[in-house]
Amino acid sequence: MEGRRVQQLLCLTVTLISTTLPSPQGLKVTPSRSQFLKEDSVSLSCEEDGWTVWRNTSRKKRRSCGDGWGKRDGSSCSISYMIDWDIGVYWCESREGAAGRSINITVADTVILESPVHPVMEGQDVTLGCKTSLQPFNLSADFFKDGIFIGTEPTGHMTLHHVSRSAEGLYKCNIKGSGESPLSWISVTGRAPPTSGSPPVNMASLESAFRVFCHLVVFCLYFISTLLMVSIYRQRATGNRMTNQPTHQSDDRLNNRPAD
Ligand SMILES: *[C@@H]1O[C@H](CO)[C@@H](O)[C@H](O)[C@H]1NC(C)=O
Ligand SMILES: *[C@@H]1O[C@H](CO)[C@@H](O)[C@H](O)[C@H]1NC(C)=O
Ligand SMILES: *[C@@H]1O[C@H](CO)[C@@H](O)[C@H](O)[C@H]1NC(C)=O
């Protein structure tokens, strides 16, 4: 009986905690980038079961995977041959209509920028790549942020070390003789509530942290009281054992005891 009760409490608290933690709802893009060359293939999948990939393009709004585009396979969707018409905003949506964070996907003829699809954490390293479909090519690429030249990389890859909020912006790259990539927005989210920055994001993360904290407190209280109850029963059982005979019978009695 006691074991059942502990199990029930654990289930309850796990449910409480999991509902307060931010759920993924995310769209996973493979390969992980938001710019694609024509004829590339891409796999889009929702991190939550039962969610579906949707998109808006300039020609058609609110189309789910399989409805005129993509090949649907459960919560995943694949496009085997990207064309201009695939340029648009993509997101995951539940049957109830809840929508996850959306991602802009672009298709380019010759040059693309490879950059993180999702917001990156402050302090992380971010690697940018510049890729061209033209062969043979010189890998050396120029990188730009908000229209300002930030460096040339002979390898075509640039690493931004320990990014801060100021790294947020619109990036593009250029390969001489091949051309320029489209623009992609890179967003940086704060790890701890920073002193400055965009208030909505900070408030949201503070609020969810506070909710998690509250539920942790509730969980601890449940846990402590359960431990107390178990130890009280144990003590009673030990008392019984000393007055009666020292066998395992009392343990069995404890396990079969109906709840008070
Ligand atoms: C997609 O298009 C619909 C209809 O125009 C619009 O209401 C919705 O906000 C768009 N979704 C995104 C993520 O842009
Ligand atoms: C590649 O381009 C860079 C910069 O434009 C240049 O300095 C370098 O010599 C080129 N390399 C080759 C092999 O052409
Ligand atoms: C996505 O594209 C829309 C329309 O072009 C733009 O307003 C929005 O800022 C873009 N979002 C990101 C994250 O790049």
UniProtKB/TrEMBL annotation:
Chain intervals with Basic and acidic residues compositional bias: 249-260
Keyword Transferase: no
One GO MF term: transmembrane signaling receptor activity
Cleavable signal peptide: 1-26
InterPro entries tied to this protein: Ig-like_dom_sf, Ig-like_fold, Ig_Fc_receptor, Ig_sub
Gene: LOC115387732
Source species, domain of life: Eukaryota
Example GO BP: immune response
Protein name from the UniProt record: Uncharacterized LOC115387732
Keyword S-adenosyl-L-methionine: no
Sorted UniProt keywords: Disulfide bond, Membrane, Signal, Transmembrane, Transmembrane helix
Transmembrane feature ranges: 209-233
Domain Immunoglobulin: 31-108, 115-189
This protein's GO CC annotations: external side of plasma membrane
Region (Disordered): 241-260
